[in-house]
Amino acid sequence: EVQLVESGGGLVQPGWSLRLSCEASGFTFANYDMHWVRQSPGEGLEWVSGVSWNTNNIGYADSVKGRFTISRDNAKSSLYLQMNSLTPEDTALYFCAKGRNPMDWGPLDYWGQGALVTVSS
Amino acid sequence: EVVLTQSPGTLSLSPGERATLSCRASQNVTSNYLAWYQQKPGQAPRLLIHGASSRATGIPDRFSGSGSGTDFTLTISRLEPEDFAVYYCQQYGSPPFTFGGGTKVEIK
Q1: Which residue of A has its CA nearest to B96?
Q2: Residue A102, pLDDT score
Q3: Starting at the edge strand that comes first in sequence, how are the strands of the sheet with B34-39 ordered?
Q4: A45-51 and A32-39: which strand pairing?
Q5: Do the Cβ atoms of A59 and B95 come within 8 Å?
Q6: How far is B3 from chain A (nearest CA, A)?
Q7: What torsion do the CA atoms of B88, A5, A28, A49 make, to the nearest 10 degrees?
Q8: Interface membership of B62 toward A (CB under 8 Å)
């Protein structure tokens, strides 16, 4: 059974940093692209960032480019999101999600339950 | 960046009725890499359709996707009570993999 478990969320002040983690199990993590998607309270989904299976391809939403960094550790089956210079607009539930296609970009077929990040003074 | 516009914002229908949801892209979606997701309150999204028209594993056949290029449609042939939810389209042809704003299907 595929499982994605996010951790690292919390309440931080504007300008602070936070690192989210996603621990994966139930599939060969090293073969699939992984993504972060966020959802602000009462709002829609926003794709934040994705990393290919071999880390050769990485993409970011314009809203986080230069502030957020995605990374993965295939040996630990883990995905990370380093978030710097946080603003109140970054307040959201952050989902970790798995790409469907091995060794290629694809739709997101499994999702975690999310980690809540609140940025407020 | 590919901007996806979903319409209508809200669809009020009764169980048993047909739902037609639209997703329009600001430019051609590469290889028709367009997905549809369903999200219920307090839950993570669920993949319904990928490649514009292929149903994901375990998705009932009352859900169907169609379209190509810039115009895509999700159709629910006969609404079941569990289908009332918010639906999102997403393009995954080229980063950033943008989502549409969503369509809420509510009980009339």
Answers
A1: A61
A2: 87
A3: B10-13, B103-107, B86-91, B34-39, B46-50, B54-55
A4: antiparallel
A5: yes
A6: 12
A7: 50
A8: no
